[in-house]
User: Fold Reactive intermediate/imine deaminase from Sporanaerobium hydrogeniformans.
Amino acid sequence: MKKNVFTEKAPQAIGPYSQAIIANNMVYTSGQLGMDEKGVLKETVEEQAQKALENLKAVLEEAGTTMDNIVKTTVFLADINDFVKVNQIYGKFFNEPYPARSAVQVANLPKAAKVEIEAIAIL
Assistant:
């Protein structure tokens, strides 16, 4: 059985998907962009990474868990050369043991974003 997760503290989905789904004591989030609740995208990659992680945190809290319970993240970058900048922001949101992570460059992101971050967490 699965349960939808929705919070007004993060941007609404911009398509036919949920902010997150709970299934089998796990939370699977959709990718979070660096935009505010009104859908306004931040400018720099650092600002977008910060806001994307804040949005991720808000979705997880609504689901009943925390960033400390994340087991895996995927970071999508419009430009892999931004990896170091994003990594500096990313590191502020996690404690050891850090979640497993993949970081990849993609051809394009929704709304021409510079970064998108998704996660899987334990409830």
